[in-house]
Specification:
homodimer; alpha+beta; four-stranded antiparallel beta sheet; 11 strands; 24% strand; disordered N terminus; DNA-binding
DNA sequence: CGAAACATTGACAACTTTCAATTGCCGTGG
DNA sequence: CCACGGCAATTGAAAGTTGTCAATGTTTCG
């Protein structure tokens, strides 16, 4: 099933379509507290849609999720990538300003936002964790915003360093997302991403065993 | 006193240099709860510096504040502008990743972060307000990130629309920040900002009575 | 194996930056 | 009060970067 062919459907409907999961090994804030129901989403499935009311908070148990916004002229922007243990759906206001989709087959914990906030009212530790998670999200988005002020090559390098911190195994990064996803996250075209990868490979900063794998050869060069 | 001639000094030192304020008329979250001590900062003064420990949370009572980051090569990025009633300094981690400066002469309420979080543990309403403020900050930064993926003209238009929402009086926006500040916020050069303003003026979308004032003539055109 | 989607590469156009010069604004001092 | 100096803003021309369009190569999966 391909992302671009998925028709929009409400989070409720998708949630219903999802299947219950066994308790996962991964531990995030919600998992630790045994909160939320684990639900599976196939690659490309929409978890919630832009403009829908904010009802739930989500935690990735397994897989990768992206938040996206489609502009009126068809351009697509990716707000962020979320991996196992990450919380997403933390938005203010009544409605979501972005939609969320599973990039790969994913398992996601879902909990009612109201319930979580209510619980936080009684549980001081939970409240502080919630604040910490939210602050971390601010830092992440801030960082994202700052990297968009850089040149294409710097953006790609920053992206690789971010992925290195979040999902690398040693010097190997296996990218779950397509070039188009990377491009939309960095605010450049896929051609620019591709060209930049090639340049970084030619300057020995990275190696590209295949299009989804990146080996970091010279992190200092990526940091400039 | 000019911004660029101010030498860096710690938040503590600046805070000590600041003078106590009379209780202000403006009301934000902290003011409502009569939290924090109002302190004055002169135009260009540093409120806290990048790399300093996160100890306080701030609320603008009067004036305008910018958060900035200076890169190793001297480029400067502005994370956000904060006007009366806005909260800033909400960052995660031990140290600030950005510094904050008063753009104009400003008065700022300061409260110990720890104290605020501790209080939020006892006061459910405060906890929820804190969460709401934090979520709003995420939305603002998200919006900033999204606007950085656009063309220069779209960025400038988005900037004007953002200022229109936040500080306009009718169709008039009096910008407290310089072209350089705007440029650093939008990730373009001052020349591009200037040229774009001229284009918008020539297409009758705005009028420029002087360099710090913008009159919105055609909001629809700015939205495209 | 072959079709479809994804990724890379090339050539050219468009946009933005860079460098340079000019204009406008405002405070200070004659 | 006006002239001057200094800084911010605007404008112009040339260079550089990124986007667009197009062709080719690669991977995936029925």
């Amino acid at each position: 099933m391909l992302a671009h062919t998925i028709e929009k459907q409400s989070a409720e409907r998708v949630a219903r379509r999802g299947t219950r999961d066994n308790p996962p090994a991964r531990s995030g804030v919600m998992a630790k507290l045994m909160l939320g129901v684990p639900i599976k989403f196939g690659a490309g499935a929409e978890i919630y849609g832009e403009g829908e009311p904010v009802e739930y908070v989500y935690e990735v148990v397994q897989g990768t999720v992206r938040t996206i916004k489609v502009l009126s002229d068809g351009r697509r922007k990716i707000g962020g990538f979320y991996f196992a243990g990450d919380i997403f759906g933390l938005e203010e206001g009544r409605d979501h300003t972005l939609s969320a989709e599973a990039i790969t087959d994913s398992s996601v914990r879902v909990i009612k936002r109201r319930a979580l906030i209510k619980m936080a009212g009684y549980d001081r530790e939970l409240a502080q964790q919630l604040l910490a998670v939210t602050s971390r999200e601010i830092a992440r988005v801030h960082n994202h915003a700052l990297m968009l002020i850089e040149t294409a090559q710097e953006r790609v390098s920053s992206f690789l360093l971010e992925m290195a911190e979040r999902i690398s195994v040693g010097d190997l990064i296996v990218l779950p997302m397509s070039r188009q996803d990377i491009a939309d996250y960095l605010g450049v075209t896929i051609e620019t991403v591709s060209r930049t990868f090639t340049i970084l490979e030619n300057t020995a900063a990275i190696a590209l065993p295949n299009s989804r794998a990146v080996v970091l050869r010279d992190r200092a060069a990526l940091r400039q």
